[in-house]
Amino acid sequence: MKRTLISALVSLLLWGMGVAGLIVFGTSKPPPAAAAITEQFSAIDDRGLPELRRYQARDGAQLSFREYPALGRQVAVLIHGSAGSSRDMHPLAFALQGLGVTVLVPDLRGHGSNRPHGDIAHVGQLDDDLADLIAQKKPGLPNTVWTAVGFSSGAGFTLRVAAELPLGQSFDRYILVSPYLRYNAPSVRQTSSEAERDASGSAPDAAQSWVSVSTGRIIGLTILNFIGVRVWDGLPVIAFPVPADLDSVTQTYSWRLQRNFGAREDYLADIRAAVRPVQVFVGGADKLLDAEKLKTEFQSQRQDIPVSIVPGLGHADMVTRPEAIRVIVAEFQ
User: Fold this and answer.
1) How far apart are CA 129 and CA 65, in angstroms?
2) Is residue 165 assigned to a domain?
3) Cβ–Cβ < 8 Å for 199, 282
4) CB within 8 A of 117, min separation 6: which ones?
5) At 98, which CATH number?
């Protein structure tokens, strides 16, 4: 009996050391800054960019957002992409305001002017924050039609919201722009593919590695989560190739932020469960997403979801280039 107990304790100790090793040492080096990925947002014309405002979340945090007021009967809430901020959505927000659409653009918690960067308190907190912003702004915008517009990972998160009750009913429709669904979705290109390399041998545009993933740490945290241990979920698990000296970007995501900012693991179920009309826009020259496979993913689940492929445009082009913005804005006319 004593020997069995000792053996069990030793096995438990070794198991614990193995999991600890994965969490402590199962990390990867941060990727070097990739100008080809970030330069389009750095070059945005800031003319007309509203000052940041604050709203109070249910936990008392004062979270930042930008508001583009207009006199029309439509409201759009824009959700930025991974590592980004509300400023990234300025070209689209400014164009919508010019059409008479009131636009709200939050810095999601852990991003932009919200500190600390790269973490949240628990999975689902981003959903709560969005619900709090809507609850505080809707009474002042009566008899309006609300549209949620998400870009890239923000589009994945927007799809998550569309499938969530009662939050999904807060909007009358959803527009997903260059939606990054999940890392293992068929629509996500494998960036190491030789087909994505240019004549010089380097990977162009978004085909450069967008994230450095700490796979070992993720495995260790997943094991601990399985037994109900979440105390280390705030540790960073992915890093982005963004400049270290740029204050507006987020360099890393914690495990809990990574799991919240995007569609759920069963993203196909999110597509099926969307409670309001959904539209999808993607660039035909997107180096991160395969536009045709993305169209198949959506329409295999819902034939009523139109997927528009805009020829010749890349991933970030869809929220920064005038020709893409015109296509999206036309949906509000």
Assistant:
1) 11
2) yes
3) no
4) 110, 111, 250, 251, 252
5) 3.40.50.1820
* pLDDT-derived band at 199, boundaries 50, 70, 90: very low
Q: Is 330 buried (19+), middle (13-18) or exposed (0-12) by CB count in 10 A?
A: exposed
Which residues lie below 8 Å from residue 139, measured CB to CB, with a gap of 6+? none
Query: What are 325's two structure tokens?
Result: 């913005």
Q: What count of residues does the chain have?
A: 333
Q: E-strand spans in the chain?
A: 53-56, 62-68, 74-79, 101-106, 145-151, 173-177, 212-213, 236-239, 252-254, 278-283, 307-310
Q: In what order do the strands lie in the sheet with 212-213?
A: 212-213, 236-239, 252-254
Q: Specify the pLDDT at position 62.
A: 98
pLDDT of amino acid 15? 56
Distance CA 56, CA 58 (A): 7
In a domain, residue 3? The reply is no
CB atoms within 10 A of CB 156: 25
Tens digit of pLDDT for each residue in 110-145? 999 999 999 999 999 999 999 999 999 999 999 999
pLDDT at 8: 55
Beta bridge partners of 106: 65
Q: For residue 63, give the nearest of 121, 17, 16 by alpha carbon.
A: 121
- Determine the Cα–Cα distance for residues 16 and 5; give it in Å rounded to an integer: 16
Whether residue 178 lies inside any domain: the answer is yes
Stretch 83-107: mean pLDDT: 98
Helix axes 322-329, 90-98, angle to 10 degrees: 50
Residue carrying the six token digits 């740490």:
217
Task: Give the range of the structural domain holding residue 227, as residue numbers without chain letter.
Answer: 59-332
Q: Name the nearest CA neighbour of 260 among 153, 187, 166, 185.
A: 153
Q: Domain for residue 219, yes or no?
A: yes
Q: Please give the average per-residue pLDDT across 204-231, as a whole number.
A: 83
- Domains held by the chain: number: 1
HSE value, Cβ hemisphere, 13 Å, CA-based, for 330: 9
Tell me what the pLDDT averaged over the chain comes to: 89
